[in-house]
Amino acid sequence: MSNENLYDVIKKPLITEKSMANVALGQYTFEVVKNATKVEIAKAIELAFPGRKVKKVRTVYMPSHAKRMGYKSGTTQSGKKAIVTIEGDPIEELTGA
């Protein structure tokens, strides 16, 4: 995979209460494309945030589930998220500090 395609691996950071609690441990959560591997995710994070070294990548498949809005029903999209452990300084862009 070339360098310009590594930016296509990461969709967006996931900012939730649980993910922000893990920032103290050096863990950041990102939504990634479904067919991304752990190696590709690690390379994309190191490319997107220079000077940071990825220590560990854990991936979780998020299946779709039923959702209702009044009388209309449907399903949410399935996806994949990655929990990335980073060595060194925290990423200020994601922590808001």
- What fraction strand? 35-45%
CATH superfamily label? RRM (RNA recognition motif) domain
Number of helices: 4
C-alpha Rg (nearest Å)? 15 Å
Q: So, CATH architecture?
A: 2-Layer Sandwich
Number of domains: 1
Q: How confident overall, as mean pLDDT?
A: 88
Spans of at least 5 consecutive residues whose pLDDT stays below 50 are none
CATH class: Alpha Beta
Q: What is the fold named in CATH at topology level?
A: Alpha-Beta Plaits
Q: Separation of termini?
A: 33 Å
With strands numbered from the N-terminus, the spatial order across the biggest sheet is: 1-2-6-3
What structural class should be given to the helix and strand makeup? Answer: alpha+beta
Largest sheet: 4 strands, antiparallel
In short:
With 97 residues, the chain is of the alpha+beta class. 25% of the residues lie in helices and 38% in strands.
